[in-house]
Amino acid sequence: MLENKVVVITGGTRGIGFEVAKLFKKNKAEVIIFGSKEETVSKAIEKLNAMNLNVSGYYPNLKDYSLVEKTIKDIIRKYGHIDILINNAGITSSKKIEDTTIEEFNNIMDINVNAMFYMIKAIVPYMKENNGGAILNTSSMVSIYGQPIGVGYPTSKFAVNGLTKSLARELAPYNIRVNAVAPGIINTDMVANLPKEVIEPLVKTIPLGRIGKPIDIANAFLFLASDNASYISGEILSVDGLARS
Length: 245
Ligand code: NAD
Known about the structure:
Helix content is 48%, strand content 14%. By secondary structure, the chain is an alpha/beta fold.
């Protein structure tokens, strides 16, 4: 479904992003993964290579716009164009407001929102030059209803939805579609690190009766990235087993 498409995936070293990298590569895209460290990026590339899925990788500090811009320029020099951006890197929080430091709150906003903006700002000029593209952001089900603890995380994901809907309008005239996927509870490290008190009550509220798998989310990204979704922009697609309250 993605032949000749060049795809950049942030947070591509594990969890949802790793599964997206796998699925996109199987669908013949040229896949470039971003991670936070050289070591994790190399390990992810090795794992994918072992499956005969050859991808490349980078590890720019996503909090530094000049490094993001430099890395994107490098990719353009090598591949000529970027067709799809999957803005997926993210961190969570499960602390009460009194226990959340200013640095922790700012860090969540830096990674979950500001880095997303940096990636889009650096790539959009090339997508415009190339007469189109697809930008996909990872939101969350907490971007609709909030969550009872860890306010920085839902705050950041509400911002992701705002950025998605607004840029969809701004970039539509350039044939650049901007959508988000809002996962429910998905079985990745991020969820394994959450306390039982947060997870258990949530699982009980899932009408489809199970936690989601990374492939459930990757399939939604594949659809939204492909030409099958060529008339869809500004959507926040819930993929959550209906766990929305
Ligand atoms: P994960 O913790 O397994 O993976 C997170 C990814 O983000 C990793 O590849 C990591 O390298 C990257 N990352 C984290 N901090 C970074 C930093 N400082 N700089 C660069 N990269 C960094 O988590 P996941 O569950 O795969 O989460 C992926 C996305 O899905 C996140 O945006 C998350 O908010 C969202 N999400 C996850 C769930 C879930 O239940 N797992 C639910 C809703 C939304």
